[in-house]
Amino acid sequence: DIEVRAGFAPDYLLIANQPSDFGPRWAAIARNRSPYTFSHLALTLEHSRLVQFPLGERGATEFSDRSRLNYSRDSAFIAVCLALHLGARKIGLLGVDFAGAHELRAELPTIEEHYLRLGRWCARHGVELVNFSPQSSLSVVRRGRISELKERRS
């Protein structure tokens, strides 16, 4: 079960990849118990309510069309855009590393350009965007440590 393996039950889940991309993990994802699952795909889920949205523009940081979510080559970019649409003021990335033989590593310069623009948009609008991934090739987003989150909660 996705909630048990992750150690928490998310309030919402974003699915940006085709079910076939998840292989055997798809069964657990389809059974997720988050109240809402967001996706641009027409998915069949067992428990979660699907909120389907159209994609906006690739790498864009214009958010005037609230019915669309902009995207890049990685799902984290869409997740940041979703968090912005939901009004988040602090957004943390974890597991966004593009390290080693990552399948998108060759596209890293374009992805970094997208995140650079997204980070600048966030800064202009008072949104904190931090990469908490312990090791990451994504160099254009401010790096932070997970311990910062614990310190802030105290």
How would you describe the overall organization of this protein?
The chain is an alpha/beta fold. Helix content is 30%, strand content 18%. The protein contains five helices and seven strands. Strands 1-2-3 form a three-stranded parallel β-sheet, with helices on one face. It has a two-stranded parallel ribbon with strand order 4-5. Strand 6, helix 4 (108-124) and strand 7 form a beta-alpha-beta unit. The longest helix has 17 residues, at 108-124. The chain is globular. 23% of the residues are buried. The mean pLDDT is 88.
Short précis:
With 154 residues, this protein is of the alpha/beta class.
Topology of this protein?
Elements: H1 2-6, E1 12-15, H2 26-30, E2 36-39, E3 49-52, E4 55-58, E5 69-71, H3 75-85, E6 90-93, H4 108-124, E7 128-131, H5 146-153
Parallel strand pairs: 1-2, 2-3, 4-5, 6-7
Helical/strand content category: alpha/beta
Question: What percent of residues are in strands?
Answer: 15-25%
Query: Which whole number gives the mean pLDDT?
Result: 88
Indicate the percent of residues in helices.
25-40%
Low-confidence stretches: none
Primary descriptors:
single chain; 154 residues; alpha/beta; two-stranded parallel ribbon; globular
